Amino acid sequence: MGVTPKIAPSMLSSDFANLASEAKRMLDFGADWLHMDIMDGHFVPNLTIGAPVIESLRKHTKAYLDCHLMVTNPIDYVEPMGKAGASGFTFHVEVSKENWQELIGIIKSKGMRPGVALKPGTPIEEVYPLIDSENPVEMVLVMTVEPGFGGQKFMPEMMDKVSTLRKKYPSLDIEVDGGLGPSTIEMAASAGANCIVAGSSVFGAPEPGAVISLMRKSVSENQEKY
Ligand code: DX5
Ligand code: ZN
Asked: What is the pLDDT of residues 15-30, one digit of tens each?
């Protein structure tokens, strides 16, 4: 078993006017990745950032930029995101049923790591072909809130998806996103999640570093069981 904890503060909860310093602050607090929420105002009812902002941030940091594409046409974003310096490119399975093979291929050819995300209403079986493929995704992001906004309540019923995935794929990176923090991390970590996205619980904490270490500890202790 070889998965390692990746704690990824969601920059959606940061002060966008000071993105570079907010990123540095999180890395200094011990963040492994920076989670970047790309929204198009169509796939989700909110509009955030795109490739130009990733490109600007890339000039200030070498960190792994874990990009979560909440967009209707992910394929249109692959080239610009690759050029901008994205590290991971996670697209939603709900909008990629016809072209996920092509998407994975192009994402890799642009030097990024492909991941697939699923909304709370999407059954876990829908991502199996993408993991079992000859050219597979390297991470599955299980949404634990409806995508679109930070600060929502964690959905514990999504943990069945995480534990089913972990049993089937012991060395897969499994990410959870939405409502994660000190009060919910144990549920996610014990189900088998190792990549943890957290926005409001980290940025809103008096000591973000303490929240990051607590989450890492919970993941490490639980991963020993697998
Ligand atoms: C929601 C985004 C999340 C969000 C998480 O659509 O994908 O990454 O920023 O924020 P919290 O941790 O506050 O739920
Ligand atoms: Zn996200």
From this structure: 999 999 999 999 999 9
Residue 12 CA: nearest ligand 1 atom is 9
Compute the distance between CA of residue 209 and CA of residue 27 in angstroms, rounded to an integer: 9
pLDDT digit string (tens) for 48-69? 999 999 999 999 999 999 999 9
Given a cut of 80, is residue 134 above it in pLDDT? yes
DSSP tag of 190: H
Ligand 1 centroid distance, CA of 185 (Å): 14
Angle CA(209)–CA(32)–CA(178) in degrees, nearest 5?
A: 75
Catalytic residues: 37, 177
Task: Output Rg (C-alpha) for the chain, integer angstroms.
Answer: 16
Q: Which residues contact 208 (CB under 8 A, 6 or more apart)?
A: 9, 25, 26, 29, 202
d(CA 131, CA 139): 8
Can you say whether the dihedral through the CA atoms of 39, 40, 43, 45 is positive or negative? positive
| C-alpha 153 – ligand 1 centre gap (Å) | 10
- pLDDT of 1 strictly over 60: no
Give residue ranges with CB within 6 A of ligand 1.
10, 12-13, 35, 37, 68, 145, 147-152, 177-180, 197-201
Tell me what the pLDDT averaged over the chain comes to: 97
* Burial 52-84, CB ≥16 within 10 A → b, else e: ebbeebbeebebbbbbbbbbeebbebbeebbeb
Nearest-atom number in ligand 1 for the CA of 200 is 13
